[in-house]
Amino acid sequence: MHIPVYAHGTIRAAVPALPTVRQLESLDCCVCGAPFGRDLGAVSLGPDPGSGPSGCRPCLRRLVTRARETRDAALAQDADRIRQDAEAWESARAHHIARLEAVRRAAEEVAELAGNEEIPPLRLAWLLISLESACAWIPDAPEPPPSVDQEDRLLSSAELQLGSAMITVREATADRLAYHLINEAQPDEPEMCGEMECPEECTGRHDTSHIDCGPDAVFEELQEHGITLDAPGPGPLSPRLAALFAPPPQKESPLLPGLEERAGPALAALGVDTDDPEALLSAAAAGLVADVLASGPLDAIREAPGGPGAGDVLAQSVDLHRRARKALIAAHDGGPARLAAFTAVATDLDLPWAGGSRFTLRSASGPVSEFVRNVEREVWVTEELVRRQGWRDALLHRALSASSMAAHRFGMPGWPAAVSASMERLASLDRQAAPKELADLHAVETALLQGPDRLGVEALGWLDRHAPLG
Question: H or E stretch including 56?
Answer without folding.
Answer: strand 54-56
